[in-house]
Structures are given as C-alpha cells and as structure tokens.
Specification:
Number of helices: 10
Radius of gyration: 27 Å
Structural class: alpha+beta
Order of helices and strands: HEEHHHHEEEHHEHEEHEEHEE
Number of domains: 3
Number of strands: 12
Shape: elongated
Largest sheet: 5 strands, antiparallel
CATH superfamily of the largest domain: Histidine kinase-like ATPase, C-terminal domain
C-alpha cells in the first residue's frame, strides 16, 4: 500500500514538474523548438511561433527541411547534433522563412541525451538583431530624454520674452497710423502667436495619458478621414486590418496625434501617384524597453517615398531633426513620446524601397 502511494506521489510530482517546465518554456522570450529522434517537431513555444511566423498546429510533426525549406543549414546541423550527441552553436545565421522574409538568428542546437543516446533535439533561436534593437532603444530613450529636457528648457526661456515682444508690438500698433508700418506690427504679433503655439506643442507632450477603451481601427479610420480632408488630391491608402485585435485601454487623443503625425509624414513623402499601406497585426511575447508583453498591437504605416535621408536616420526621433526644409522636426519626436507614454515604441525601417514606421502598442495596461 505504501509503495503504491509512493509511486502515485512520484508520478504526481513528475507531472507537476513537467507542467511547470512547459509553462516556463512557453513564457520564454527565446524561440524554443523540440524535435524527436526522427526529426519530427514535437513542440514550439509562443516566441518560436512569433519569430518564425508559424502556428504550432501548422508545423507540428514537420521535419526541419519542411519548416525551413530554403535553409539547409538547420537540417544539417540538427541531424549532425543528433548523430554525434554534441551541441552546435552558431551566430548570425541566415534563416529564410516560408513567408519569404529573411532574418538573422543566433542558434543553439542541443541533443537531449538519455542513457548515452540522443532521444530529442532542442533548438533555441534568438533574433540576432534583438540585442542591437535593445541597445538602440536605450540610446534613443536616453538621448531623447536629454534632448527633450534641453528643448523644454529653451522653450521656457523663449516663451517668457515672447509675451513682452507681443505686448510691445500691440502698444506700438495703437500709436501708428501708417498702414505699411501697421502691417509690420501685425507680422510681429502673428509670429509671436505662431511661436507660442509651437512651444506649447513641445511642452504639452509630457501629459500623462488618460486611458479608456479604444478601438485601434476606429482611430485609424478617423485619422485617415482627417488626412484625406487636408489634401486636395486623391490619396492611395490601402488598409489591411486584423479583425481579431481587441479593444485596449489607451488615451485616444494621444494615439490619434501620434498616428496623425506619422500618416502626415507618409503623405508628404509620396508623389501624387504614391501609395500608403496601413497594416495591423497582433504579435506575442515581445519585449519593449525591458518589459515582456504577452501580446502587442503592431501598426505598420508603409509608404513608397524616398525615406529619411541616411545622414539623419539615426536621429529621426530626436527633437528638431528633419529632412524637409519646411519641417519643424518635432512630429516624429512627439509621436514617439506619446506612444512611449503607453509603454510602446515606434520603429523606423527602410526595406524593399519602402519606408516602414511601426507602432508597437501593448494590449495590456502599462502605467509609466
């Protein structure tokens, strides 16, 4: 009786340990795939599904050469690791996905040995650009914070004398009778007002978001209607929305402003016959600024314009950096700050002769 009870307890303990291990692997940010000794896929965690753009249901039971038909390295490396019982570590390996996308990964292929025999193969994949992106995010956050503090300090210094200049111009205007001179005072007053509004916009971006239920697609439709109304010529805007995206808690006005700044940039970048595409998707297990989110919304705003000039690309989100003579250089900076206040991030990328601005917005509550 005692032996039977002991066996039951041991079995329960093993099952609990196995469940704990599965939960741990499922919540890892590293892609983990497990193959049996016949090289059939046994399991893949959420990070693996996200990195490879596949579902567990679709690839379960498949062999490496079927999962990665255009990446012979992985099949050979996994097979070699199984037969030799040795671990294979490679960095910066090109991985061709079934979607046609190519990514670089760091990989570790480890045999699971039982009684000196490799019974399974564990494959760990890490996006090789992930660490670079983290460093870029940290650098951008640090520099942008310093630049914002500096600009806001200058803005306060500029705003104070503006009131005096405007007041003096108004007093002078009352004393003048010459229409030509009155035109000059009018210019002074108008420019003071314009500068004051400009400074107010720079100083207002520190407002903490007031969150409520928000539908990202409703926001996009509203922003599109605003941009269409601002432009006399027809805009070619294509929409590819994921209908499964849930309602989230966010500051609708701030998200509208961020998206509006990006969409206006796209409109200004394209020719009259250019195209803009808006794509929304859900991604799982994504780390943004040191925080791992189970789900995030990714909004891609894509245009076929020339993109940001290479010489200012690295500082595109910093205040007062612009590639347009008529630009103020605060649109992207404000958009980034507003999305960051929601725990998110905006990325810029140039690929396939197109410009990608991607808003990463957590679906979970994040009070910064």
């Amino acid at each position: 009786m005692n032996n039977a009870l002991k066996q039951c307890n041991n079995k329960a303990t093993m099952e609990t340990s196995a469940q704990t291990a599965l939960r741990t692997v499922e919540h890892l940010a590293t892609a983990v795939l497990l193959f049996d000794k016949d090289l059939h896929l046994v399991s893949i965690n959420s990070a693996g599904e996200s990195l490879l753009s596949v579902s567990h249901k679709r690839v379960s039971g498949m062999r490496p050469n079927n999962i990665w038909p255009n990446s012979k390295f992985f099949y050979d490396a996994i097979q070699r690791s199984l037969y030799t019982g040795t671990t294979c570590i490679e960095r910066g390996v090109d991985l061709n996905l079934n979607s046609g996308q190519k990514i670089k990964v760091d990989c570790m292929i480890t045999p699971v040995v039982v009684d000196d025999v490799a019974e399974e193969i564990l494959v760990e994949l890490i996006d090789a650009h992930a660490f670079v992106r983290v460093l870029q995010e940290e650098n951008q956050e640090t520099v942008q914070a310093a630049a914002k503090e500096s600009v806001q300090g200058m803005a306060h210094e500029i705003k104070n004398p503006l009131g005096g200049i405007r007041g003096a111009a108004q007093l002078l205007e009352r004393e003048l009778e010459n229409e030509e001179l009155l035109e000059y005072t009018g210019i002074i007053i108008n420019e003071c007002d314009r500068l004051r509004n400009f400074i107010d916009r720079m100083l207002s971006t520190s407002t903490h978001p007031v969150k409520s239920d928000m539908n990202i697609h409703e926001v996009l439709e509203y922003v599109i209607s605003v941009v269409r109304a601002e432009n006399s010529h027809k805009l070619n805007i294509k929409k590819d929305y994921d209908p499964s995206i849930p309602i989230i808690k966010a500051d609708r006005e701030q998200v509208i402003q961020a998206v509006l700044n990006l969409l206006r940039n796209a409109v200004q970048a394209i020719d009259s016959d250019g195209h803009i595409t808006l794509i929304t998707r859900i991604q799982r297990q994504v780390t943004i600024r040191h925080k791992l989110y189970r789900h995030i919304i990714v909004l891609d705003i894509i245009d076929d314009g020339p993109g940001i000039p290479p010489e200012i690309e690295s500082g595109a989100f910093y205040p007062l950096v612009t590639g347009r003579a008529e630009g103020t250089g605060i649109g992207l900076s404000i958009a980034q700050q507003l999305i960051q206040s929601h725990g998110g991030l905006i990325n810029y990328e140039r690929k396939d002769n197109k410009t990608y601005f991607s808003i990463l917005l957590p679906t979970e509550q994040c009070d910064e």
